[in-house]
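Minutes, project check-in
Item: structure for the 220-residue chain
Input as provided by the requester:
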Amino acid sequence: MSTIPIQSAIPNPQPGPEAASPVAYPITPELVHPLFPLTPIAPIRANLPAILGALGAANLDDPSMVLMALATIRAETESFEPIAEMPSRFNTSPGGHPFNLYDHRHDLGNQGPPDGASFRGRGFIQLTGRANYTRYAHRSGFDLVNCPELACRLEVAAQLLALFLLDKEAPIRHALANNDLTAARRLVNGGSNGLDRFSACYSTGCAVLAGPGSTVLTNL
């Protein structure tokens, strides 16, 4: 197991003009649980503090971005735990070794075996591909290239989620302000996979987590 220390590498930028008002009350597991109707509350209790801490460190703790993070988790890892991608028809050909369809994906920065398996989707955001692991190794300070399994460690996975959303903050806020959940989802996933779960989580959260002053949420 890696001995790389857990430490925050998320910058602390000032919120932009489109940022919604901060959450003025605690977001508890009991509030979040209705957004994940198929998930036991235990992993929410275990993992929510790290997620909220990482979002807060990135100044992404207003209602709209908290809901964006939660909806992304619902779409990517509904168990509310950082997980590693499993072999499937989308990443492994019949009779092929696991994740062989990723091995030569140049759009992911992969350079051939064993890159497909080494840099498969991990964490809350399902970080995928050598290029992304390299980028977020530099952004986070964790050696994700040589120790890609770190992306499934809770504190690291929470930071990667926050960093990924921070990198796309402006277009995400624009999409949410225009009620365009399809565009918001595409900014993370690159397509519409999990859009139904993403939209259900965000829409339910608007009723559950909307706080005073959050025009982004109350306009939905």
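Outcome recorded: Confidence is low (pLDDT under 50) at residues 1-8, 11-24, 212-220.
No further action items on this chain.
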